Prior knowledge:
Largest sheet: 4 strands, mixed
Low-confidence stretches: none
Helix content: under 10%
Radius of gyration: 15 Å
Number of helices: 0
Strand content: 25-35%
Order of helices and strands: EEEEEEEEEEEEEE
Number of strands: 14
Structural class: mainly beta
Mean pLDDT: 92
Amino acid sequence: GSLTNVTIPNSVTTIEYGTFAGCTSLTSITIGSGVTKIEAYAFESCTSLTSITIPNRVTSIGRGAFFICTGLMAITVDVANSFYSSVDGVLFDKSQTLLIQFPGGNAGSYTIPSSVTGIGNFAFAGCTNLTSVTFPIRVTPSGSCAFAFCTSLTSVTIPNSVTSIGGAAFRD
């Protein structure tokens, strides 16, 4: 379709599973302050979406919510949010120990911050312009499909402390 701009009213509390999946023309979305839950794959394949702001009341973001959003350059979280945070456009849990989503449009190399001990499911999946990733010493096993479809990835540095890697972590 030709859906380009969406404003979700404050009365909406949940963005359900796959709500905007495949909306490749979607360039702008404003999420109302009433939203508390963004379900899995809610924005999957929204390839024209360049940024998104997570409101302060969101308490749950499902896996792959931003899967294959290859134009996404930044995810910003309202500083009053008690469950999530963002640093340089990357989505983390509040304590910044779990990396939840790297924006799919970012290119080049990325060094995961030393505070991170876990990588979420689909965290880097579909980041087609990402060329290298360096893990911190303390990271625990990667989530499943964490780096799936990272077609430009040529270098990954994983420390000796990692004892297992999630299923299909580097698929395709």
